[in-house]
Amino acid sequence: MSPFLRRVALTLLLVASPWVVSPLAGDTPSARGAREYDLKATFLFHFTHFVEWPAEAFASVDAPFRLCVLSPDPFGGALREVVAGERAAGRELVVKTIETADDAKGCQIVFVPEERDSALVRELPGMREGWVLAVGERGDFLDRGGMVRFDLRQGKIRLQVSRQALGHSQLRMSSKLLAVADMEK
Known about the structure:
Elements: H1 3-16, H2 29-50, E1 51-52, E2 65-70, H3 78-83, E3 87-88, E4 91-98, E5 109-112, E6 133-136, E7 148-153, E8 156-162, H4 163-168, E9 172-173, H5 175-179, E10 181-184
Parallel strand pairs: 2-4, 2-5, 5-6, 6-7, 8-10
Antiparallel strand pairs: 1-9, 3-4, 7-8
Helix pairs in contact: 1-2
């Protein structure tokens, strides 16, 4: 499926159903994993359109929109492929793989993979100010200050959103996105 068609399909899924992906019966574990991260990459891209950031979240009026992934990057090239040539909030969209929380300075979205400790979300530059959408996978991610968690249950991706983290941020999340998410504490 082309990146454009994949984005259109995901948009329809976002507004129509909270259950996003169910692996095909014949998928191998590696094919399921690749497909899972293709869909998560598409979700991350769509967050740029379903969430509004304050002007203060950007270094300047022409600063790019930075989508950062803490290493190890589980997406391979999928995330860069999804955002290639795209813009977010009228800005160039840049994907950056980072090593430490400090490297996230200037990032609007930070993805924390399963392999990383969720506690580092509190160390992300911009979190205190409420300018960063922290997205993760670990079960304790929302309890540690993250805002959105990808929850994989029975082969399906479910979005969980922390009501508390969202309330303490300056981000505005679309009602369409909130309608398909489980709201947590």
